[in-house]
Design a protein that fits this description.
The protein has 6 helices and 4 strands. It is mainly alpha-helical. The strands form 2 sheets. The protein has a two-stranded parallel sheet with strand order 1-2. A two-stranded parallel sheet has the order 3-4.
Length: 130
């Protein structure tokens, strides 16, 4: 989805592998909320944005944001000068579930102890050991 971008092809490859069952990903429900929010703001089409959010939600295991995720997310946010709060919540959700990898272009995740950021441009090879 979206316009042409440096990461578009790589991200489409990752989504395609998830859709085919080759990759199984995990995400916070906050990822879907963020996606729908941004897409609605750009397209001004609530129905299309909602359906796209449902589609994204079917591609991975979704994890609810729990109180412990909020607590850890606030700690990560407070300790970091680079993480935005929503990204700190994504990181906390992963860490609290023993998920040690996050696919993201955002280098702010690089400083989170216990979490390895995988850039989308090399993610297919890294995640499939191809």
């Amino acid at each position: 989805m979206g316009a042409e971008h440096l990461y578009r092809a790589a991200c489409r490859d990752i989504v395609g592998l998830a859709a085919s069952g080759v990759l199984l990903g995990d995400a916070s429900v906050e990822l879907v909320q963020e996606f729908v929010h941004v897409r609605t703001r750009r397209l001004r089409d609530r129905r299309e944005s909602t359906e796209a959010g449902r589609e994204i939600g079917r591609l991975c295991r979704l994890h609810p944001l729990e109180l412990e995720d909020l607590r850890l997310g606030l700690e990560l946010f407070e300790e970091s000068t680079r993480l935005e709060l929503r990204d700190a919540l994504h990181a906390a959700t992963a860490l609290n579930r023993g998920i040690g990898l996050i696919v993201s272009t955002d280098r702010a995740f690089d400083g989170v102890a216990g979490l390895e950021r995988v850039d989308p441009l090399g993610a297919v090879e890294r995640l499939t050991d191809a």
